[in-house]
Write a sequence for this structure.
């Protein structure tokens, strides 16, 4: 196949985070991190909170954090339906750290609460962690470049 | 001829009303702007996720495996649940009447097979004005959920979505529909009744809110329709998906999410429609008030002039009598 490009699109209910032609995509699925190259077989998987990394045609890398969702892979198209997602350069590290500290504190105090809100807070912690990781990865990449 | 004082009083009262309708128009306009922004933001996600589920349902149902309960049609339909999205307040023209009549029509179409009522319909309301279905048509109302004027988060819809999926799986309803008003543009809104469960690719008119080409989204109706037709027409288009971890687990997580998104989109569409309808209604009211004030001012001037003329005639008549 001469076609070495993936039409990549990541959307959340709020907006389209990124729509680009890329060479490869790395996503955190429930069964571990996978990298998708052009001509991948069709795949549907659910995502874990974590870091998405894409490599564009010209070798430039982009990092995003995601808090969960789905990925659909077609022959030359990758669609990520994310619950929330941000590009690393948009993330404010201080606020993320603050939010995570708050969430962790709540979870310590909330043994008495019900299952539902407990999972809610855990999800929030995972999301903030994913954001922090995305920023760290992005900074590392920028230094190497 | 009416008393000048009465006319003056009416002019005063109408121009006061005009001030109110003008203010309501402004408020509705600003709410409409926000609601439209929200609708446009979500449309991409809603449509892409719907396309994904269509692909999936095709792939899964094509396989010999046990089909997913939310994707399979039931043979006998006894009771349907309808989620009716109306407004909380009135003064929005025919908005509520249109959606309620449309719903009633579609129930009727399904209901009478050989003069006999075969299907029962029950309502789940969002927005206070929806209660009229009970008053006018006597349908049962199963539940009522509060609705904000401007929805901001998808989690607002979660309780409704959870409830309908639970009741559908429990067998209380055999079909779930959602009645909402599709926002086309500021002067055009179309009431629609759409099937939500079971997810069915053969039903027409599945796509929320895409009318013609929307350059802002870079996605258009033809694109999706083509995709859909391609899938339906040709078995070869059925993708052999790999599921991670397993089809059941992915679908279990994905379909409820999709339902949530579709409902949310329907809610946003309705909100945008409601505010546009209210804005249009209030605009008309303001115009009508203007016309009335103009007309009454004319009457008032005529009456005033008539009374002056009458007075002068009286005086001159009196003067004439004295002179003789």
């Amino acid at each position: 196949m001469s076609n070495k490009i993936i039409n990549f699109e990541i959307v959340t209910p709020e907006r389209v985070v990124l729509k680009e032609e890329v060479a490869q995509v790395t996503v955190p699925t429930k069964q571990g991190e996978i990298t998708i190259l052009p001509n991948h077989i069709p795949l549907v998987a659910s995502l874990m909170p974590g870091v998405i990394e894409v490599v564009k045609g010209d070798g430039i890398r982009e990092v995003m954090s995601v808090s969960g969702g789905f990925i659909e892979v077609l022959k030359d198209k990758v669609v990520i339906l994310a619950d929330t997602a941000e590009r690393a350069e948009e993330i404010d590290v201080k606020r993320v750290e603050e939010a995570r500290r708050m969430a962790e504190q709540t979870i310590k105090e909330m043994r008495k609460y019900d299952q539902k809100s407990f999972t809610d807070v855990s999800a929030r912690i995972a999301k903030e962690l994913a954001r922090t990781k995305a920023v760290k990865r992005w900074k590392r990449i920028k230094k190497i470049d | 001829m009416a008393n000048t004082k009465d006319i003056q009083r009416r002019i005063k009262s109408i121009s006061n009303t005009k001030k109110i309708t003008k203010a309501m128009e402004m408020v509705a306009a600003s709410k409409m702007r926000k609601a439209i922004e929200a609708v446009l933001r979500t449309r991409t996600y809603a449509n892409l996720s719907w396309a994904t589920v269509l692909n999936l349902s095709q792939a899964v149902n094509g396989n010999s495996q046990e089909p997913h309960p939310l994707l399979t049609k039931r043979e006998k339909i006894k009771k349907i649940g309808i989620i009716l999205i109306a407004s909380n307040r009135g003064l929005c023209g025919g908005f509520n009447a249109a959606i309620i009549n449309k719903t009633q029509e579609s129930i009727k179409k399904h209901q009478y097979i050989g003069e006999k009522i075969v299907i029962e319909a029950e309502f789940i309301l969002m927005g206070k004005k929806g209660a009229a279905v009970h008053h006018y048509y006597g349908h049962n109302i199963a539940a009522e959920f509060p609705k904000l004027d401007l929805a901001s988060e998808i989690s607002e819809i979660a309780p409704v979505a959870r409830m309908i999926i639970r009741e559908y799986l429990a067998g209380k309803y055999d079909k779930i529909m959602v009645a909402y008003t599709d926002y086309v543009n500021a002067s055009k809104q179309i009431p629609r009744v759409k099937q939500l469960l079971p997810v069915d690719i053969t039903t027409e008119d599945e796509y929320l809110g895409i009318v013609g080409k929307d350059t802002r989204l870079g996605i258009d109706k033809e694109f999706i329709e083509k995709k859909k037709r391609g899938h339906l027409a040709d078995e070869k288009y059925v993708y052999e998906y790999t599921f991670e971890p397993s089809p059941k687990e992915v679908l279990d997580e994905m379909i409820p999410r999709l339902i949530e998104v579709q409902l949310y989109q329907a809610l946003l569409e309705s909100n945008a429609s409601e505010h546009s309808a209210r804005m249009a209604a209030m605009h008309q009211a303001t115009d009508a008030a203007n016309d009335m004030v103009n007309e009454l001012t004319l009457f008032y001037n005529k009456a005033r002039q008539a009374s002056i003329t009458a007075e002068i005639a009286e005086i001159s008549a009196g003067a004439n009598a004295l002179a003789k």
Residues 26-280 of chain B form a domain with the Pyruvate Kinase; Chain: A, domain 1 fold (CATH 3.40.1380.10). The first helix of chain B runs from residue 4 to 62.
